[in-house]
Structure prediction request, 331 residues.
Amino acid sequence: MDMIDPFGRSISYLRVSVTDRCDFRCTYCMAEDMAFLPKKDLLSLEEIDRLCTVFIEKGVKKLRLTGGEPLVRKNIMYLVRQLSRHLDSGALEELTLTTNGSQLSRFARELADCGVKRINVSLDTLDADKFHAITRWGNLAKVMEGIDAAQAAGLHIKLNAVALKGFNDLEIPEMLRWANGRGMDLTVIETMPMGEIDGDRTDQYLPLSLLRANLERQFTLTDIPFKTGGPARYVQVAETGGRLGFITPMTHNFCESCNRVRLTCTGTLYMCLGQNDDADLRAPLRASEGNELLSDAIDEAIGRKPKGHDFVIDRRTNRPSVSRHMSVTGG
Ligand code: SAM
Ligand code: SF4
Prediction:
C-alpha cells in the first residue's frame, strides 16, 4: 500500500527531526540566542517509533534521523535500535542520519551495530578557526575524531558543505581532495532562506553554477546518473576518482522527483521543505491506541503535498521565505 501524492509521486522517504536542539549554532542555520521547544511538547521516543512504524507500513523505505542534532537527543540509541527491527524484517531498506559529527566518536560503533550503513556529516570547512566561527560553538578536532570513529566502524560517510560566498568557496577544492582521498563523497548545498538568523543571507548566497565553473578550472567533472535517493546531482571527478554532488534548491527546482516528507519532533508533518502547509499527527497519535486515525491523517496530509517550493532570497525585504528554522525540519 504505497503513498502516492496528487502529482503521482510515490512517498518512500521520511526524514524525522528528533530534536530541535543542537550543540552548535551554525550562523546560517540558527540565531545565537535560540528559543527551543519546551520539553513537554516533544514526542517521546516511543511515540516517534510508533509514528515511523506506521509510515513504514505505508510504504516508507528510507528513514533519516536529523534535527537539530539528532545525537544530542537523550537516549537516541534506544530509538535507533527500535527502528532497526524494520531493517531486520526487510520492511525498511535504509536507516540513516544527518549529524554534525560532534558526538559520533561516542556512537559510531553502536550505529553500525544497529544496521546503519551510511551517514551524512555536515562540515563546512577544514580550518579549525573558521569552523569555530561558522558553528559558533563547535570544535573541529572533535568532529574529526567522530569521522575517524565512523570510518573505523565501517560507516560510509557523505560530507555535506553549505556553500557560502567569501567563507568556503575557495576552500571547496581542498575539501574535495580531502574527502575523496578518504573515500567520502562531498555534496555542496546552496543556502536556503529558512528562519531568522543574525546575518544577511544575500551576502552568503553562492549559486552553485558559479562554483562548478570555478571548480572546472582545476577538475574534470563528468555528469553521472548516480543517485542516493536525495536531490543531489552528481559528477565524477577524474583527478580524485571520487564524486561531488550539488544540491541546488535555489537555481534548480528538483521538486518533480520529490519522494519525501518531514516529521518534526512535535509530530508535525511538513509535506514540503519550502512551504508552510503542515499536518498535525500528534493529536491522532495520542487520540487512540490503534493506528487507524493516524493512518487516515497521514493519507489526508499526503493528499495535500504541494507541487513544489518557491524559495527566493529577496534582496529588498531580506525576509526568510519560510520562517521556521532548518533545525525544525532538519533539512
Ligand atoms: N545538525 C545536523 C547537521 O548539521 O548535519 C542535522 C540538522 S542540519 C539542520 C541539516 C543540514 O541542513 C546541515 O547539512 C546544514 O548544513 C543544513 N542547513 C542548515 N541551515 C541551512 C540553510 N539555511 N540552507 C541550507 N542548508 C542548511
Ligand atoms: Fe546545529 Fe546542524 Fe543547524 Fe549547525 S546546521 S546549528 S549543527 S542543526
In short: The chain has a mean pLDDT of 92. The CA atoms of residues 236 and 243 lie 5 Å apart. The first strand starts at residue 13 and ends at 17. Residues 22, 24-26, 29-30, 67-69, 100, 122, 327 surround iron/sulfur cluster (ligand 2) (CB under 6 Å).
